[in-house]
Prior knowledge:
By secondary structure, the chain is an alpha/beta fold. It has helices at residues 29-47, 56-76, 94-100, 116-126, 165-174, 192-206, 218-227, and strands at 2-3, 83-88, 106-113, 134-137, 150-156, 176-187, 231-238, 244-250.
Amino acid sequence: MESDSTQPSVPSTPADPGQRPGPGSSQPCQTVSKSVKRRARHEFDGWAKTYDRSIVQHLLFRPAYRMFMEELYEWRRHIPDPFDGLDIGSGTGSWLAMIAGSPLPSRRLVGLDYSGEMCRVAEQKAQTIEGAPSFINGDSEHLPFADGAFDFVTCSHSFHHYPNQAAAVREMRRVLRPGGRLMLIDGFRDNIIGWVLFDVLITRAESTPEARVFHAPWSMMRQYFVDSGFTQIRQRKTGIWAPIFLTVGTA
Ligand SMILES: C[S@@+](CC[C@H](N)C(=O)[O-])C[C@H]1O[C@@H](n2cnc3c(N)ncnc32)[C@H](O)[C@@H]1O
């Protein structure tokens, strides 16, 4: 079931988590930023080996790959030119493997992830794939690529781990060619079910007192895209019990 909801019903918590202050606002942003990233690395280094067998795959991750694939097909089916794509927070590389295994004409597929273990598992999987994607251990806020290096950037279920979300979207915009697209998916926390799942349960599970994850609400996500200079911004939501939403923008 899919909808084009535009009326979030649960208000967001912080006014601007683009750079989030620490709990009680006593910690400098840079310290918080580092602890959020360290926390993410720790979580995903530990999860890497069993990640592909997790039940969450069915609930959250695969529905996101399906949404991306719909978008990519719709966009590229009449464009024969091969494309270059970057997936940020690429995890074990399943989404890039899907593209490589599809009839779509990819030229260069790169995954970037902050967890070295996730990259290692992704690289192992990629060895058996034709037109194999490559993986880089890096940070979404500092992409090691030239301006305009990619035709698309994707990012799924990773954004809520970024302590400086606005800066990350600006980086994504920077590495896109004119006319390139950013497709970003994360948990939809703007209705009651999404709020309980993402803002309460998952935030509690993935945060420490020093390092909180943050699911950007619908309107805030749109604003990040606007502020980074994206045009033709579209958003759509899917899923009832595990709602997620996609935001697409053109560079
Ligand atoms: C839930 S996983 C999602 C992986 C993949 N996108 C998927 O949908 O299966 C979140 C990923 O984001 C990565 N991550 C967290 N913070 C990051 C950052 N600052 N820069 C790059 N990757 C990050 C984690 O290491 C983890 O692999």
